[in-house]
Amino acid sequence: MSDKQGKVLGVSGNMVSVNFTGDVRMNEVAYIVLSGDDGEAIRLKAEVIRIRGRECDMQVFEDTRGIRVGTPVEFTDELLAIELGPGLLTMTYDGLGNPLDALANKCGFFLQRGVYLPTLDRERVWAWTPVARIGQRLKAGDALGTVPESMYTHRVMVPFGIVGAVEVLDVAPPGEMTVAQTVAKVKLVETGEIRELNMVMPWAVKRPINAYAERLLPETPLTTRIRIVDAFFPVAEGGTACVPGPFGSGKTVFQQGVSKFAEADVVIVAACGERAGEVVETLREFPELIDPRTGKSLMERTIIICNTSSMPVAAREASVYTAVTLAEYYRQMGLRALLLADSTSRWAQALREMSGRLEEIPGEEAFPAYLSSLIAAFYERAGLVRLEDPNLGTTKGSVTTIGTVSPAGGNFEEPVTQSTLAVVGCFLGLTYARSYAKRFPAISPIDSWSKYIERMRPSLEKIYYPGWVDTVKRLGGYYAAGQRVGDQMKVVGEEDLSLSDFVHYLGAEFIDAVFLQQNAFNPIDASPEAARTSLSLQLTARIVDHDFGFTSKVEARDTFTELTANFRDWNITATDAPEYQQLLDRMEARLGGAAQA
Amino acid sequence: MRKVYTHIEQIVGPVVSLHAEGIAYGELARIRLKDGNTTYATVIKLQGDLVTLQVFAGSKGISTGDEVEFLGRQVQLGFSAENLLGRTFNGVGEPIDGRPALQQTTDIDIGGPSFNPARRIIPSELITTGIPMIDMFNTLVKSQKLPIFSVAGEPYNELLARIALQARADVIVLGGMGLKYDDYLFFKNELVPSKERTILFVHTAADPVVECMMVPDMALAAAEQYATDGKDVLVLLTDMTAYADAMKEVAVAMEQIPANRGYPGDLYSQLAARYEKAVDIEGSGSITLLAVTTMPGDDVTHPVPDNTGYITEGQFYLKGGVIDPFGSLSRLKQLVNKKTREDHAPVMNAMIRLYDASRKVRQQQSMGFSISAFDKAVLSYGDEFETRMMDLKVNLPLEAQLDLGWEILANHFTPAQTTLPTKLTDEYWPASA
């Protein structure tokens, strides 16, 4: 029990002011202790966010009704932390790391306040294999041993917070262990302190985990199987991307597609202040979906941090940190972690709500002045790293962060979008115009960008084919020019357009219809493999480049209409279906040549 | 004996402050006015011994010497599953239909906790309305939350009433906020055929602003009781912009720093807390929520519709007396469209794409450009689509709506021109074409 004591001085929304004795830490966790109807205490978790004299302000992670002036407050001396260890995969947590399933088993359909459960299952048994040797000197992040978790080897590591070297005094022999059992005894070399370690490592979520050898430049793509992204605006493994879009522009469908098909080892979905219904789709579907790369269910590689819009707003602020901490943790095991933060705007709004309650001087659109530095710090937690383990050798691990932004009014000039664009490597801008015309994914082919494409040229051409990047750039340029012709046509009309310009316009529309657009709800078109995408791009390019020798606009339109229909049929045809080759042949015939698959 | 406080320190808008001790956040208080009237208030801020209250009936006529008594509980709704049906209440849950107060009620808290997302299930049942722009193009799904975005002059209340009458639900809870008295009477008359399953919570434009803020919570608390009791509940709210404006009024009176256009920074969270009450409870009932949100100046980027759009599972745009097919969206339609008929989704998409094309051609034509033969087909298609599909008076079963779609397409195009998969055109293309 800590010697510090507090009493509530004031309540405004989810902010509580507390008068305290003793020393209080910034971001320390405290509990406001209410007496419930049945006499049992309800302890509401809160975090210290401002200290002035003997008074501190706390954001409460729960509904604050019933708190009175004078209600006692208990301080914990601990920063807001989450338990790291085996058993995180497949789970669904709220923003503070409470397992939602276990909460439901305990409380029923509705979330009750003041109920907190351990993040890691204390009962579950793991097959422990020691890695470290007695007498060995290790540093933070080095493996003590491993346990198998889903399809991965989960490293149980020297706690990241330990400063300097530790000497291994004892390590448990192979066997069945729960997370709470001691697996190793170490001596801190600097202080001589002896610590018993188990598989649970609490980590303050707002501190980045940096127990790696060095950060590396991202040079390989994280394949998402969304054509427009992988070809035109690829995201690097260890990189960052920002997906802003007005509501109804398909952010959710895009995000769900990425979470299903992205070629990552671990996917952390942070549903931050968004609809609960979206999470439910993931929750219910993933256990049923088989990941073709591993043969296991998708849930086996997924963790969901679910702090949806009607859940307490302060926990929403914490949820993105919880999520990125989990991603960093799995990166430490040499895995490729993908963090999907949906939506960072809700997180920013949570900051704004709290800033308003603190009566801070507001910045643009009442967001706090420190918004951009917090956003930058959040995206900087992504990255590709080299890990050096004395026993397990050198490996690479990565955190790739894709954050969606929900700009007010769909206006990208607003502070959250702008602060994010300043720090990410890839911008996938979803637009009203494309979604109104049902052109999905509604990622703007004109405005979006990726800073990674040149740097990843060698690895991209290895995945697809030599010359891929050049084809992409040429088609991108052709498409943009074709769109300009289209704009011109809107002004001058089709009649006054030259035939060659008109064919250019049709070519651009063709690229859009058969390559840029993708049907996320069709099982085939939703996730083409690299080989198929290579073929798509090559064929698209050949059709666009082909000189059909049109003599009239009607002929040109008819030809492209037919080719579009063939190609779109082909896009939704399985590679082993007979129509697959037939459709290719039909398109080849239009190009005047024999089929070349 | 509860302590009675007799000195009100400050009165600003609907917000009053006084010195009192031992008061809980959110607690309900009763204020006895000098003129003999009584009103209620809730605690919205505590600072030392200074207690800030929002007064339900507004602060008009409140004197600094009025008696304030704290009741030691939160705002509650007197609930009774049988006796609530067919009744009309104000925002505080008092009957305003001239009939006696409810008997044998259980007090339930309003604004209760959030539903555990891990216990939600994927919505899977469609609710047909007979309106093609809903059933075929943007299917309404049980447990969905959808706003109807609308400009002030549109017939949104008429549409709401029609959905209320035609949609399948066990209980209908209508929450009116800032209603014109005429509209209140309209609902009262219009919903008579389904009176036995309808409950009204009404705040009219002339009523105190704080009561307006209570309406969604009251309506949803009642709905939640029925839903957990196995009933499928349809909640209709109109107008959420009035609700948001009420929040703004109170926030400004409390001197909160506004975020966008004067609205409080927690507008999104407040709206979401209400909309997220929509739920399908496994093994029990459900809440489906339709809420009118009027857009000041037809501006969808206005904070209220904008925040709403991010919360809800789609939106209906009511424009020019029809549900606009471009902006309107039911995010859940994919969940039920595969269960209707295999051609549902493709036909829907093709029709919208071609209708979009027709609007573009019409624009070009109006600018005096000559148009191609294909453009002419697109134009005549657009006209037929508008008259036979978009009219809100069309009332057809879903299958008939789909057949009508094929018929309209075939009247103007060849199968290839629709870019629909050949497999479907082979099967569904009308033989007469």
Instruction: Kindly give the count of domains of chain B.
Output: 3
Task: Return the average pLDDT of chain B rounded to an integer.
Answer: 91
Mass-distribution shape of chain B: elongated
**CATH architecture name of the largest domain in chain B:** 3-Layer(aba) Sandwich
The largest interface is: A-B, 87 and 83 residues
How many angstroms does the end-to-end distance of chain A come to? 72 Å
Radius of gyration of chain B: 25 Å
Approximately what portion of the residues of chain A adopt beta-strand conformation? 25-35%
Report helical residue fraction of chain B: 25-40%
Give the CATH topology of the largest domain in chain B: Rossmann fold
Low-confidence stretches of chain B: none
CATH H-level superfamily of the largest domain in chain A = P-loop containing nucleotide triphosphate hydrolases
Can you count the beta strands of chain B? Answer: 23
The CATH class of the largest domain in chain B is Alpha Beta
Residue share in helix of chain A:
25-40%
Weakly predicted, low-confidence segments of chain A: none
As for the number of domains of chain A, it is 4
CATH class (first level) name of the largest domain in chain A: Alpha Beta
Number of helices of chain A: 15
Kindly state the number of beta strands of chain A: 26
Report what the structure shows.
The complex is a heterodimer of chains A (597) and B (433). By secondary structure, chain A is an alpha+beta fold. Chain A has 4 domains: 5-79, Elongation Factor Tu (Ef-tu), domain 3, CATH 2.40.30.20; 125-204, OB fold (Dihydrolipoamide Acetyltransferase, E2P), CATH 2.40.50; 214-453, Rossmann fold (3-Layer(aba) Sandwich); 464-590, Orthogonal Bundle (Bovine Mitochondrial F1-ATPase, ATP Synthase Beta Chain, Chain D, domain3), CATH 1.10.1140.10. Chain A contains 15 helices and 26 strands. In chain A, strands 8, 18, 19, 20, 21, 22, 23 and 24 form an 8-stranded mixed beta sheet that branches. Chain A is globular, with a radius of gyration of 27 Å. The model of chain A has no long low-confidence stretch (mean pLDDT 93). Chain B has 433 residues and is an alpha/beta fold. Chain B folds into 3 domains: 4-74, Thrombin, subunit H; 77-334, Rossmann fold (3-Layer(aba) Sandwich); 341-428, no CATH class. Chain B contains 12 helices and 23 strands. Chain B has helices at residues 132-135, 156-166, 181-190, 209-228, 240-253, 267-275, 303-311, 333-340, 344-366, 373-390, 398-410, 422-428; strands at residues 4-5, 8-12, 15-19, 28-32, 38-47, 50-55, 67-70, 76-79, 88-89, 106-109, 126-127, 140-141, 145-150, 171-179, 198-204, 232-238, 258-260, 263-264, 279-280, 286-294, 314-319, 322-323, 329-330. In chain B, the strands form 5 sheets. In chain B, strands 9, 13, 14, 15, 16, 19, 20, 21, 22 and 23 form a 10-stranded mixed beta sheet that branches. Chain B has a 7-stranded antiparallel beta sheet with strand order 1-7-4-5-6-3-2, with no helix packed on it. In chain B, strands 8-10 form a two-stranded antiparallel sheet. In chain B, helix 6 (267-275) packs across helix 7 (303-311). Chain B is elongated, with a radius of gyration of 25 Å. At the A-B interface, strand 1, helix 1, helix 4, helix 6 and helix 14 of A face strand 5, strand 17, helix 6, helix 7 and helix 9 of B. Strand 1 of chain A pairs antiparallel with strand 5 of chain B.
